[in-house]
Amino acid sequence: MHRPASPFGHSLLEMRMTRRTKAAGLPIINSRAAAIDIGSRFHVVAVPPDLCDEPVQTFQAFTGDLHRMTAWLTDTGVTTVAMESTGVYWVAVYEVLQAAGLEVVVANAREARAVPGRKSDVNDAQWLQRLHACGLLRASFRPDREIAALRSYLRLRERHLDYAAAHIQHLQKALTFMNLQLHHVVSDVTGATGLRIVRAIIGGERDVKVLAAMRDMRCKASPEVIEGALQGNYQPEHVFALKQALELHDFYHREIEQCDRQIELVLGALAGKAQTPAAPLPKPRHRTKQPNAVDFDTRPLLHQITGTDLTQIHGIGPYLGLRLISECGTDLSRWPSVKHFTPGCRSLRAARSAAARCCRREPASPTTRLQRTCVWPRSPSARPTPRSVRSTDGWRRASAKPRP
Q1: CA distances from 114 to 48, 265, 269, 309 (A)
Q2: Containing domain of residue 85, as a range?
Q3: Which one, 190, 216, 281, 321, has the greatest CB density within 10 A?
Q4: What letter does residue 230 receive in the DSSP assignment?
Q5: pTM of this prediction?
Q6: Domain-ending residue, one of 244, 267, 290
Q7: Collapsed DSSP state (helix, strand, coil) of residue 54
Q8: Is residue 11 part of a domain?
């Protein structure tokens, strides 16, 4: 078969084969990149083959083994390490490697395992190391040490709030068993009037007039209405359940107060390292205290840390501003542009409405913690806009229509 010749003396087939051969290998960007396949019991570490005779080694998950793994990586000349994990086992490894001065990249497991067929931990570590050496892994956002500590305290505080809310439900259930309609005559059972009456009931008080006299002066219900609501069936097992529910509720609120002290210390340390803002702190836009907010004023500290008053933004109160700082940090240069940042919080993103999603039968995308932080129902200071109300009404109308 005749091959068409090129003006340089080579056939076109040979030139095509040469191009394919050159394009077969991806360029190495990080020549000293390592990777770790994180596990609950052991970690598999892979380094470039030209740096070590045994490029793949396994280390146990104990702290001493983590330090030996770090020493081995630094001795081989590794400067950056990538890891992927579906749990929280990577946190300890990340902190040990970061303390040693290594650049650590936490990759998304869904992106790292896009190619099927690699079932062993060794192959996973080698494949991850190859991807990281070629610069194909995107680093997940991880804040600095101080912001990470603030985030941990706030997330623990929110968990305590959830536990305390569950015991409020247990308290209301015990009151219902005793046919005490206290939650119908007071706006909040855990408010000033409600807690006073509940503590008196646990203490043995049964006189409805004495209990009704404990109402706060701001309570809208009259003493006669409260007396009628407190005529119940005081069985000892229900009173015991009421007592334990209140004790657990008080316990978690004491733990929340301790979390507030730690949050205040971290914010004070961050404010001490920040520069003094050029503009003074403006007047607060929110006069009322937010429910479940920390028990100290965060505006001056956040103003010192960020250099601006986040509460001047519509829909952001002091507590939501604190949560945004704990989740995003203060260095917004970690996101290349506004378009990279707003999909994480959905605050400015022109997303499809719920009505359109319902009509097209499209599933809602999974939300991250940052997204759950920024949506308006989680912010007591934010209010639903007319656009969100219209979207809700449209979703209701669309769901009421018969589908084809």
Answers
A1: 22, 43, 42, 43
A2: 33-133
A3: 321
A4: T
A5: 0.76
A6: 267
A7: coil
A8: no
Rounded Cα gap, residues 222 and 203, in angstroms: 23
- What is the C-alpha separation between 27 and 189, in angstroms, rounded? 65
Structural domain ending residue among the three candidates 289, 315, 331: 331
Residues 76 and 96 in one domain: yes
Tens place of pLDDT for every residue, the chain, 404 residues? Answer: 454 444 444 454 454 444 444 445 678 888 999 999 999 999 999 999 999 899 999 999 999 999 999 999 999 999 999 998 878 899 999 999 999 999 999 988 777 765 666 568 888 899 899 999 998 888 888 888 899 999 999 999 999 999 999 999 999 999 999 999 898 888 888 888 899 999 999 999 999 999 998 988 888 888 899 999 999 889 999 999 999 999 999 999 999 999 999 999 999 999 998 888 888 888 888 777 778 889 999 999 999 999 989 888 888 889 999 999 998 888 888 888 887 777 656 543 333 444 444 444 444 455 555 555 654 434 334 444 444 444 555 545 555 544 44
The residue written with tokens 């080694």 in the block is 57
Strand 103-107 with 56-60, pairing: unpaired
Domains in the chain: how many in total?
A: 4
Q: Are strands 42-46 and 56-60 parallel, antiparallel or unpaired?
A: antiparallel
Which residue in 348, 269, 259, 353 sits closest to 304, CA to CA? 269
Q: 142 lies in a domain?
A: no
- CA neighbours closer than 13 Å in the CB half-sphere of residue 321: 26
Buried b (16+ CB within 10 A) or exposed e, 126-136: bbbbbbbbeee
Residue 330 phi/psi, 5-degree rounding, is -110, -10
Looking at the structure, tell me whether residues 160 and 197 fall in a common domain.
Answer: yes
The structure tokens listed for 26 are 């991806």
- Which residue, chain included where needed, has tokens 């007071």? 186
252 and 289 fall within a common domain: no
Alpha-helical segments (H) within 35-135: 63-75, 90-99, 109-112, 121-133
Residue 183 located in a structural domain:
yes
By C-alpha distance, which of 141, 142, 140, 147 is closest to 306?
147
* Phi and psi angles of residue 107, each rounded to the nearest 5 degrees, phi first: -90, 155
Question: Residue 336: how many CB atoms within 10 A of its CB?
Answer: 8
Q: How far is CA 368 from each of CA 5, 34, 365, rounded to the nearest angstrom?
A: 59, 28, 10
Q: By the 8 A CB rule, do 35 and 45 touch?
A: yes
